[in-house]
Every structure is written in C-alpha cells, then in structure tokens.
Amino acid sequence: MSLIKQILQGDQLTLARIITQVENDTAEGHRALDELFPYTGRAHIIGITGPSGAGKSTLVNSLVKLLRERTKETRIGVIAVDPTSPFTGGALLGDRVRMRDISNDEQVFVRSMATRGALGGLTRTVPAVVQVMDAAGYDPILVETVGAGQAEVEIASLAHTTLVVEAPGLGDDVQAIKAGILEIADILVVNKADWLGADGVVQILRSMLELGYSQKLNGSSSLEPANWIPPIIPTVATEEKGIQELIDAIVKHKLFIRKNGDWLKRDRKRLETWLEQLFENELRSHWRNASAHENYANIINLMVSRKISPYLAVKKLIKD
Predict the structure, then answer these.
(1) Cβ(243)–Cβ(163) below 8 Å
(2) What structural domains does the chain harbor?
(3) Which 3 state secondary structure label does DSSP give 173?
(4) Prediction pTM value
(5) How far apart are CA 195 and CA 169, in angstroms?
(6) Per-residue pLDDT tens over the stretch 269-298
(7) CB count in 10 Å sphere of residue 203
C-alpha cells in the first residue's frame, strides 16, 4: 500500500513521517503534498492565539476532550506551535506536556512544531501540515500559536474560526486591543475566569467591541444582519467550565460562515497567502543561487562605504 493511501486511511505513523518531511521542506514532502492536495479543503480550521500565560494549551486540551465526548467518531488534529529551542532548533514540547490527556486518544493527532525563528506566532510550514492533516480526515484541526503576544495575527489568514484568549493578571489589561489582535477575533475567550480581575477583562473587551459594533449591540437593526459579533466566553479550562458554551460558539460561527459564503472566501485567502509565501521563498532561493556571491559582497561593501544607498543597491542587484 502506498504512503498516500495509508495517510488517507488515517495511519498515524505514516502521517507523522510525512509531516516530518513536510516540515523539513524535502522533495518527498513536496511530492506527498502534490498527491494529497485534491483531498483537502474539508476540515474546519480553528486558530487559538493570545499572550503567553493565558492558558491556551489547557484550553485546547479541554476543548478536544469535550468535542470527542460530543461526537465519538470525530477525529481531531492539533498543531501546537512551541518556541524553538536555542540548542537543538526543535520545539520545547511544553504544549505536549499540558495536552497529555488527549495525546493518548487514538482519534486525536497532536503535532508540536518549532517556530524556527518565524514571527507571527506560526512557522511557515504550518499551512502545509494543516493540508496533510486535512487529507488524513482530521476535522476540526486546532492550531495553537506560540503565544508571543501582540504580533500574532498570521493565524487569521489560516483559520476559519479564530479564538483570541485573554486572562486576568497578565500585567496588561489592554493587551487585546494592540496590533490588531482584537480585530482578528471571531470569538473572544476570557480564560481563568475564576481569577480576580476576570470581570474587568470582560468589561474591557465588551467596551472595545461596542466601539465597532455599537449599533448592533444596542439593538439597532441599521447594521446588516451578515455582521458577526464576536461573543465573549468566560472559561476556566482547568475545570472545563465554559467549554461547552465555547464549543457552541465555535459551531455557530462555522454555520454562519458556511451560510454567508465566508468559508470559501477564507479558504481562498488561506491558499493565496500560502502561495505568496512559497513564491517569495522560491524567488529568494532562485535569486541567491543565480546571483554571484562576489557581486553580492561587492554591493555590501559599496553600502558600507556609503557609496550607494540600499535602494540603489537593490536596483543594481536586480539589474545584474
């Protein structure tokens, strides 16, 4: 039986092997993606982002447990992006430790991935790994970002439904409104809702939402009914409190974007973003291979001596 058929039938060992090839950007990984791509586009991709310490991994653990209880036949994929180890270049696997409850479930596939220096909370091979899991029949697929803080907006171009997780006591009560992190939320989660200050976080988020959705929130019908208002869901992930309500909100959002056509728009945007990334990487690689190293070094020397500006240097490199 071919490796592709094994993946399509859900063989986890083969899936893990191919994902490793995809992560390492090998020719075998590329060939596998070529063959698997026609079988993709079915999974609901759920992004989970937010600052470190908000309890994202524990939330994912509880989410998957209750999703599996709801539908026993559901096969769930989890991609947990961990910080890169400065010694080995691999993931520190902190998320896998917090997800050990679901790691033993045969219907759940958890994959930790290192950022490998990538910014934005993801690594550049995450979209490809999502496609492999999708082809293998995992639906939904949960993608947890690394938790770097305010710059994690890449997940919005990957996920159908984006959860932004906040929590009290992180030292910055307005973390959510910075650098677009609030704008990417389809669902706002206030985890550790039993902590002091949780009500204040909910109120701040509600106030920020009212700035953009004031008419809708105040009961006016002047806004189009197609507008989705991000709900605010308080949770205590360690005790699985609020998780059922969160699952209900996720399902509701999935049905909403299916009905209004946003599902296909987000799928198109995801593929477009992925194509642009691959195209840029290929062009950069091709340029470096084609450009003489000596010529490049000479251009750098001219810049250092302030004989040409970086703008002129780029034009000269492209011309040469």
Answers:
(1) no
(2) 3-260 (3.40.50.300), 279-319 (no CATH)
(3) coil
(4) 0.84
(5) 8
(6) 889 988 988 888 888 777 766 656 667 888
(7) 12
C-alpha distances in angstroms, 175 versus 33, 92, 148? 37, 25, 12
For the chain, the distance separating the N- and C-terminal CA atoms, rounded to the nearest angstrom, is 50
pLDDT in tens, 220-250: 444 444 689 999 999 999 999 999 999 999 9
pLDDT band at 302, cuts 50/70/90? very high
Q: Are 45 and 160 in contact (CB under 8 A)?
A: yes
DSSP codes of every residue in 218-253:
TT---S-TTPPPPPEEE-BGGGTBTHHHHHHHHHHH
d(CA 63, CA 165): 13
- Neighbouring CB atoms inside 10 A of 21's CB total 18
Beta bridge partners of 164: 49, 188
Cα–Cα distance measured from residue 126 to residue 124, given in angstroms and rounded to the nearest whole number: 6
Residue 187: helix, strand or coil by DSSP? strand
